[in-house]
Design a protein that fits this description.
single chain, about 230 residues, Purple Acid Phosphatase, chain A, domain 2, 7-stranded mixed β-sheet, globular
Length: about 230
């Protein structure tokens, strides 16, 4: 498995090149922010018209990770659908594909801010999942230890010999982890944004998505100089 292992609250976790997180001891695969149905939701609300292929790309990636890890549990960390109506508007092919992926395993939908409420799809619907010693929720709660969350869609920009490189990433400081968006049509927030910098401890790293993933010190904004 071409992943990057790290320790979180005494547990060994593996970041996959896709942005999924694998907890081998529990046979648990975790993904965040799929945002299925984004193109349909934007068209429905009169927004920009996007090619309706995000579900195909996102579920294809998820299917590959499921084949790779053979999980007993899949946890989707919220914003799995771009809104509640998008969940019921999945076309027949996508709905059948999703049902096939869910078959034979425990599937947990964590509520997000886009899909804050149970959707009419099978599986377990929770606000927070407690799998001691770890906690799974959509938005990070400051001060919590052993927490895995999403929501912020982190990415990191690092300097290279040829200039700079920006990649989606997992942020972790050994006590918490924030996962990147797994969905195809999703933006990202740079790690030097104050919203992320304030959440992560001083020793935080950014695990850049690549094959294999690569860990670097979490890029932060330069301190402001006093006048």
């Amino acid at each position: 498995m071409n992943g990057y292992e790290f320790e979180l609250h005494g547990e060994t976790l593996t970041v996959l090149p896709s942005g999924g997180l694998w907890w081998a001891a529990r046979r648990l695969l975790c993904v965040s922010d799929l945002h299925l149905g984004k193109s349909e939701r934007m068209a429905r609300r009169g927004g920009a018209l996007l090619p309706p292929y995000e579900a195909r790309e996102t579920l294809g990636k998820l299917e590959a990770d499921i084949h790779l890890t053979a999980p007993e549990v899949v946890v989707c960390l919220g914003d799995s659908f771009d809104d509640l109506d998008a969940a019921s508007a999945l076309d027949e092919e996508t709905a059948t594909w999703l049902a096939t992926l869910m078959a034979g395993r425990r599937w947990v939908w964590i509520e997000g801010n886009h899909d804050a409420g149970p959707v009419e799809i099978s599986g377990t619907h929770l606000e927070v999942l407690y799998e001691p010693p770890l906690i799974f929720r959509h938005i990070c709660v400051p001060g919590k230890h052993g927490e895995i969350s999403g929501h912020y869609h982190p990415k990191a920009r690092v300097q290279t010999r040829g200039g700079s490189l920006t990649r989606r990433c997992v942020l972790t400081d050994g006590q918490k982890a924030i996962l990147p968006a797994y969905g195809a049509y999703t933006g990202s927030l740079r790690s030097d944004d104050a919203a992320l910098a304030d959440l992560m401890g001083a020793e935080a790293v950014a695990i850049l998505l690549a094959d294999p993933p690569l860990a670097v010190p979490m890029p932060r904004a330069a301190p402001r100089r006093r006048a």
